[in-house]
């Protein structure tokens, strides 16, 4: 239990100490108007209160990532907890902060537009395609996962029988509605309540296992296990752990979600709480589920058997009902199910906005929103027919590669403004190495090269990327879109 509390304390300390340092390096301006005020349209640009924006951001970025990822990562042992803490503070939260704040500084722009501004048009075109692919994969994952979990719950706990297909249709129907209606009608109104439920149930499950006489929190593990690979299936820790945990430590999907709330945030001073803070909150949720996975089943072999018997969803089901009984288990299980649903719809919403931005099509009219959204749902429906395990593997890699692009974008921004770029460059170097090594060494998804060779190429690629970003940013001053608008406004007033 002490390990868990120490990890939570480290995350909270990271928010107050490192988060403040990141905020100072970025340089907020409390007097500058945000896009929520300068571009209010009643659909996507809608001012909302800070607590509401925080809870919506937490739900938007969460999905099943901070639950399924840490459960799968727990197979490596307590090393997963160490990566959640370090990755969350120094990579994930920094990534989320810059993806949100750069969107605010650029009029609520989506991640491809931001990437294009600081890394060039080639990067913009790449990110337009890659972001849509990632969001479609996310949408499909966040349809299939909750559909399977709800089907299992209904069929096992009631006298009714439902099919997976029927649940997929119901969830897709909801996604279509939530994607095209104004952001404050469903997302802004109900998601803060769901966010509060998520936090309450996560804490409830952790409290239940802490007070349980049948389970010992992290029992059987020693401090040295934090630095060891204990995977019972002999899976290599490097670089797979850093792809597997994904959303619990760093996630490129968040870069597609942060602009949604950047369009609703009322003041730049709220950025650290909303963006950096939501990632810290997700890290705590990831720690809770990683700890439950390491503690509830008694051993890594038993955890591995539970995963093999029904995936991480089976772990959630077993732990929820095993710790809280039928009634509490249903509430906890539904709290988990809410996560992918509330991220799936925002994934499609982000896709719609990225396409609209690319085709320069305004989104105030319902007709235009449907034109952008319906093709995405047709493609998403087709992808639900692909095996979930295959979709999840490609999602994990695509997710982290998107994070790499956002981190390098943030480094380019800091370099142009002559600010301390190493806060984003160091995690960018590490995650570039992780992604390249993973795709080269993985025989199922990539090229199946030897790990040593893959790692050398990964390190070399990350260094080349750093040199490239420094070169294209050297000597280039930069004025944010918001600053440019202020200059133009002052010029008009002076004239």
UniProtKB/TrEMBL annotation:
The UniProt entry's sequence similarity note says: Belongs to the peptide transporter carbon starvation (CstA) (TC 2.A.114) family.
* CC annotations in GO: plasma membrane
CstA N-terminal domain span: 5-143, 153-294, 326-436
Sorted alphabetically, the keyword list is: Cell membrane, Membrane, Transmembrane, Transmembrane helix
TM stretches of this protein: 80-98, 126-147, 159-178, 190-211, 235-253, 273-297, 317-342, 370-391, 397-415, 422-441, 447-469
Q: What is this protein called?
A: Carbon starvation protein A
The annotated topology with respect to the bilayer is: Multi-pass membrane protein
Query: What PANTHER family does the record point to?
Result: CARBON STARVATION, INNER MEMBRANE PEPTIDE TRANSPORTER
* Keyword field contains Transmembrane: yes
Q: Which GO terms describe its biological process?
A: cellular response to starvation
**Which regions form coiled coils?**
none
Q: Name one Pfam family in it.
A: CstA
Keyword Cell membrane annotated: yes
Localisation = Cell membrane
């Amino acid at each position: 239990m002490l390990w868990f509390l120490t990890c939570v304390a480290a995350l909270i300390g990271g928010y107050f100490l490192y988060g403040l340092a990141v905020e100072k390096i970025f340089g907020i301006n409390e007097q500058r108007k945000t896009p929520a005020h300068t571009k209010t349209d009643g659909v996507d640009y809608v001012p909302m209160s800070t607590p509401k924006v925080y809870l919506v951001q937490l739900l938007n970025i969460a999905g099943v990532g901070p639950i399924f990822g840490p459960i799968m990562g727990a197979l490596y042992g307590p090393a997963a907890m160490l990566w959640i803490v370090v990755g969350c503070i120094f990579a994930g939260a920094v990534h989320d902060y810059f993806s949100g704040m750069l969107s605010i500084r650029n009029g609520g722009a989506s991640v491809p537009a931001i990437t294009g501004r600081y890394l060039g048009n080639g990067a913009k075109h790449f990110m337009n395609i890659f972001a849509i692919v990632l969001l479609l994969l996310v949408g499909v994952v966040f349809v299939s996962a909750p559909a399977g979990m709800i089907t299992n719950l209904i069929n096992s706990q009631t006298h009714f029988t439902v099919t997976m297909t029927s649940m997929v249709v119901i969830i897709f129907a909801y996604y279509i509605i939530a994607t095209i209606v104004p952001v404050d009608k469903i997302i802004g109104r109900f998601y803060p309540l769901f966010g509060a439920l998520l936090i309450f149930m996560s804490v409830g499950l952790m409290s239940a296992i802490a007070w349980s006489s049948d389970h010992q929190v992290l029992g059987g593990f020693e401090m040295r296990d934090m630095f060891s690979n204990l995977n019972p299936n002999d899976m290599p820790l490097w670089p797979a752990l850093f792809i597997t945990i994904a959303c619990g430590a760093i996630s490129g999907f968040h870069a597609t979600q942060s602009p949604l709330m950047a369009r609703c945030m009322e003041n730049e001073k709220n950025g650290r709480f909303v963006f950096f803070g939501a990632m810290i909150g997700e890290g705590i949720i990831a720690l809770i589920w990683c700890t439950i996975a390491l503690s509830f089943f008694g051993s890594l072999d038993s955890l591995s058997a539970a995963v093999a018997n029904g995936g991480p969803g089976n772990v959630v089901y077993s732990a929820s009902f095993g710790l809280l009984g039928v009634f509490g288990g249903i509430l906890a299980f539904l709290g988990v199910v809410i996560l992918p649903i509330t991220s799936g719809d925002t994934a499609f919403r982000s896709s719609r906005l990225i396409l609209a931005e690319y085709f320069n099509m305004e989104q105030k009219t319902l007709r235009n929103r449907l034109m952008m959204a319906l093709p995405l749902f047709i493609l998403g429906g087709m992808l639900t027919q692909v095996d979930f395990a295959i979709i999840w593997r490609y999602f994990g890699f695509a997710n982290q590669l998107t994070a790499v692009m956002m981190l390098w974008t943030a480094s380019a921004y800091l370099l142009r403004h002559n600010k301390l770029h190493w806060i984003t460059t160091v995690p960018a170097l590490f995650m570039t190495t992780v992604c390249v090594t993973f795709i080269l060494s993985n025989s199922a998804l990539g090229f199946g090269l030897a790990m040593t060779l893959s790692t050398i190429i990964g390190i070399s690629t990350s260094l080349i990327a750093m040199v490239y970003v420094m070169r294209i940013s050297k000597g280039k001053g930069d004025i944010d879109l918001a600053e440019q608008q202020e200059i133009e406004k002052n010029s008009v007033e002076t004239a």
